[in-house]
Every structure is written in structure tokens, then in C-alpha cells.
Amino acid sequence: MSIRVVLADDQEIVRTGLRMLLDVQPDIEVVGEAADGRRAVELARRLRPDVCLLDIRMPGMDGIEATRALAGPSVPDPLAVVVITTFDLDEHVYAALKAGARGFLLKDAGPALLSQAVRAAAAGDALIAPSVTARLLSAFAATGPAAPAARPADALTGREEQVLAAVARGRTNSEVAAELHITLSTVKTHITSLMAKLGARNRVEIAMWAYETNRVKAGSGG
Length: 222
Hints:
By secondary structure, the protein is of the alpha/beta class. It has two domains: about 5-125, Rossmann fold; about 160-210, Orthogonal Bundle (Arc Repressor Mutant, subunit A), CATH 1.10.10. It has helices at about 10-25, 35-45, 65-70, 95-100, 110-120, 135-140, 160-170, 175-180, 185-200, 205-210, and strands at about 5-10, 30-35, 50-55, 80-85, 105. The protein has a five-stranded parallel sheet, sandwiched between helices.
């Protein structure tokens, strides 16, 4: 089954380029395009794609508002959203992730990373590239809301703390398993437990909690 994608960008040439890069992938199909966030939300709610790829800066309803409408805390059946931006220090990235985005990448990321991000989101994972996303998460967590991060429902175990730190540094499940010398299924079990204890809906929220509580320091993405 192909991964169905709705993409939104206010520049037609960018949409065309993204569609061409995605459509050449044998397992990815672009099923809808929009030039603004409002149209993207309408399309996504009607088509129910596996992944929504949204530009942050769009006229009218921007990518942050669209993300919140499709994947925000109040959405009962959230869709997977990946936001895309031109600037690696865009001040809206943190807000987009807080709004429910599962990950993000830069427009010059290239076809391999683009398709990887789409596949990760469709699989319920998140693309948190250590070289870009983890750095931005740490930077924007430091300037985010002043309210303290919520305490976990139950104390984290030592192993959960290790998995938490690895996820926040951008490690995939396979990389976490190799790094900690545990099985892939064990990693998934720990991540499920972390989500339950932290009230997180995905890996991005787990990573953001780690930064907000200083479990992982800025510049420690290596």
C-alpha cells in the first residue's frame, strides 16, 4: 500500500518540486495539494492521508495553525504532520512541534531525507535528525513557554531515562537498541511507557519534555 500524502506550500514551484520528489518513490503517492493552510486542512480532513507535509509560512492559515487543526491536543483523530521550512532557525518551529507536528525538515534536505521523513511519520515514528531537529528542539525549548514541564505520572526508571535521552538526541528505534544493547521490541516498550508516563502523544513530545526538563542539554545532539 502506498503512503498517501497531502502537501501544502504557497509557492507552486515548491509544491511541484516536492510532488516530483515524492511521486518517484514506489511507496509514496501525493493525493492532494494546497496553496494555504486552510485548504490543506480541508483536503486532509476529507482525504485522510497517511501524512500531511506542510510549509510553515503560508498566507491566511499558516502551517502552525493547520498543524494544530489536524494534530493538536484537542483533535480526537490526529493526522501525522511533518512541517517543512526554509530556515533552520525559524522561530515558528517550536510552536509547530507544540501544535502536534511529528517532525520537520528543511526544504533543501534532499529527496532521501524527504522520503525518510514521510515514511517515519507514516510509521508512527518521527524524524528528529540529530544534526538539525535536536539542535532546534533544544534551542526553542530554552525560549519556549515559561511554565514548568509537567512531572511524569510515575517516576522514570533508569532505562527509561536512557531511552528518553537517546530519543531526544534524534536516535531511531534501531539506533537506540544498538546503543543500549537491547532489542527493538524492548525499545518500543520503553517508548510506549514513556508516552504514558509523560502524557506525550509521540516521540517529538518525548524529546521536547527531555529538553524542557534539562534531561538533555543544548548542543548534545551528537
